[in-house]
Write a structure and sequence with these properties.
This protein is an alpha+beta fold and 235 residues long. It starts with 5 loop residues before the first helix and ends in a 7-residue tail after the last strand. The model has no long low-confidence stretch (mean pLDDT 93).
Length: 235
């Protein structure tokens, strides 16, 4: 009996399989591991606004150009901005806002210095080094701009990617349906788990279970049909 080479068998199988075209629109929490059926685009610039990447003080970088450890620049603390708040008052020269990670920068501020690098006494903050414009600032649209593709057709949806989509307010995605795969093992010596081995030479059918779980783990929908006896007359 001539055995079919692996490459020929693989080609035969792939040529016999139709690529799935069925689609499903799923909520994000049920879409992990699925394959996107269309590009997903940013629904707005992200971040929406300039915001602080650190806990610290929002300031005008120009106010700090002469700061040194021996001769620190002293700025008045004008207020405090937490994440979820928005300050409409423009930042004045010689002043700074205490700011928390994710909070929007006040108008006029162009940098943030980390809280670990300053000293605070009352309503004064002491800056001991120059701060560059843009330091510790996440600029609006720096991650993605409106209309930019943030997830591509054919991409697998990982937990991380789902988190990205959720940050754009996207709650549902169009995915390909899971391909259905039937698993059959061949061998007259095979017995199913939980059944006794009846005679010498028999073994348990392990391949069907390994392949079934492998298909399910990789996004398919497998059905384990068990095993069939060898029949060398089957074409």
């Amino acid at each position: 009996m001539d055995l079919l080479p692996f490459e020929s068998a693989l080609k035969l199988v792939l040529n016999s399989v139709n690529r799935t075209t069925a689609l499903e629109r799923l909520p994000l929490e049920l879409a992990v591991g699925r394959i996107l059926a269309e590009d997903v685009k940013a629904t707005f610039n992200y971040p929406i606004f300039d915001n602080s990447a650190m806990d610290g003080f929002a300031l005008k970088s120009g106010d700090t150009k002469n700061a040194t450890p021996e001769n620190p620049v002293v700025l008045e603390i004008a207020g405090e901005i937490s994440a979820g708040e928005f300050c409409e008052n423009p930042l004045e020269e010689g002043k700074a806002y205490k700011i928390f990670t994710g909070a929007p920068l006040p108008p006029g501020a162009d940098a943030v210095i980390e809280i670990e690098k300053v000293e605070v006494e009352g309503n004064k903050v002491y800056i001991k080094e120059p701060v560059k414009s843009g330091s510790n600032v996440r600029k609006a649209g720096s991650y993605a701009k409106l209309g930019e593709v943030i997830a591509q057709k054919g991409e697998e949806l990982t937990p991380g990617k789902i988190g990205v989509l959720a940050s754009f307010g996207i709650g549902y995605v169009l995915t390909y349906s899971r391909p259905k795969v039937a698993i059959v093992s061949t061998g007259s010596e095979l017995r199913e788990p939980c059944h006794p081995l009846l005679k010498p030479g028999q073994i348990y059918n392990s391949n069907s279970y390994a392949l079934t779980t492998a298909v399910n783990q990789n996004g398919g929908l497998a059905t384990n049909l068990g095993s069939v006896e060898d029949d060398y007359q089957t074409p």
